[in-house]
Amino acid sequence: MEIRGRDPCAEEDLLSKKMRKALESRKSRGLVRQLTLEQSSCLENDFGSNDYLGLARSEMLRGTASKILERYQCVNGSTGSRLVTGNSQLAEDVEELAAKFHNSESAVLFNSGFNANHGLLGCLASKDDAILWDERCHASSREGTRVTNSSHVKAFRHNDLDSLHKELTAALERVTGAVIIVVESLYSMDGDLVPLKRLFKRIEFGGRRVSVVIDEAHTVGLYGGNGSGYVCERGFENHPNLLARVVSLGKAFGCHGGFVLGSRLLRDYLLNYARPLIFSSALPKSSLATILGAYEAMDSTEIREKRARVFTLSEYLRSEIDASPVVRSLVMTPMGTTNICSLAVVGAEFCVWVADQLALKGFRVMAVRPPTVSPGTERIRITVHSHNVARSIRELVRCLEEIILTADDGAVLPSAAKL
Ligand SMILES: Cc1ncc(COP(=O)(O)O)c(C=O)c1O
């Protein structure tokens, strides 16, 4: 087959011109994103991934998954969407186990946590319903609110129950239908937890018109004693205002996929209306077997110990940060109890530079920039895992302090420290 090369002198088509301009604009602001390969093979220095329990790299899980595949004797590809030819006993068993594990009436498996949020929020509301979302909710929830039929979609200030109360009062007056409130149990870019008890109390006045959706992407696997999540930990899984929980399997579970947990009615509804579920091939059996294996592992002594270790090491990270006035001054949200800590390193280019400097020393952290977070709130996000060690945490904080102190661009620091 003859492949004809592009004529370098030919004028670019309009869309190519637009794409180039958009990328150049991002580049000029230090915001362009590109793929990189993992540079450090030292697991102890992984402070960037969401593989909190090391399950993504677990030989044990790989072994369990292949035994499960043998047990179910199935081909790998799903061959179609769940509603066409892609359903299987394995998929149904995975959902049943997940529902039981999270103490939910039912679970529906999506191809990712992103799809679960997008599918759920995209199909729940009609024109006369409202959606109120915490301004720091993940892009997947926001995408869902972009395709909704709701005529009233508003953000409230992050974890601010007065702001939520105000928006809820306005929404109940404005629409005749239901009001859906969307929050996360642990905000992945800030590391703070939702004030669940106070939230449910504060929305009581809306009665049965108010339904809450909680994205548990970063708490499943870690919270709830056995990893069932923060909602279970606080005992709210049967709260009358809780409509659904969203689970991502790509974080502490070390797999891929997502669940919406809720009533059987909700499950039937999603199977009929959630477009990412209906119009996409289901997950392959290898993924399903890995998910089943990960759920089976959640109650094992090994994972219990790893879970406890994440919290002990997170505490250690906080004490190390506390002992360094320079690093402590960058902490964005008052240090809580979670395994996520964000440090204000303002200025996209500076933030990437700091992360690169840490990478040169073998540490993997995330430089988070707009549009993931709003301009002026760029940050270094540190996540703690069971495979970190006290020495690597100590070293990380020490290196960070040194990098910040010796940074050329002294102008960035004062504003960063003020945040
Ligand atoms: C809070 C939150 N919700 C949902 C998702 C999407 O989950 P997944 O990676 O499984 O698509 C993420 C992923 O980063 C997340 O952080």
UniProtKB/TrEMBL annotation:
Q: Does the keyword Transferase apply?
A: yes
Q: Which Gene3D superfamilies does the entry link to?
A: Aspartate Aminotransferase, domain 1 (3.90.1150.10), Type I PLP-dependent aspartate aminotransferase-like (Major domain) (3.40.640.10)
Pfam name, any one: Aminotran_1_2
Q: Which GO terms describe its molecular function?
A: pyridoxal phosphate binding; transferase activity
Where in this chain does the record put each Aminotransferase class I/classII large domain?
Answer: 46-388
Question: Which cofactors does this protein require?
Answer: pyridoxal 5'-phosphate
Q: What's this protein's family per the entry?
A: Belongs to the class-II pyridoxal-phosphate-dependent aminotransferase family. BioF subfamily.
UniProt-recorded name of the protein: Aminotransferase class I/classII large domain-containing protein
Native organism:
Rhodosorus marinus
User: What is the organism lineage in this UniProt record?
Assistant: Eukaryota, Rhodophyta, Stylonematophyceae, Stylonematales, Stylonemataceae
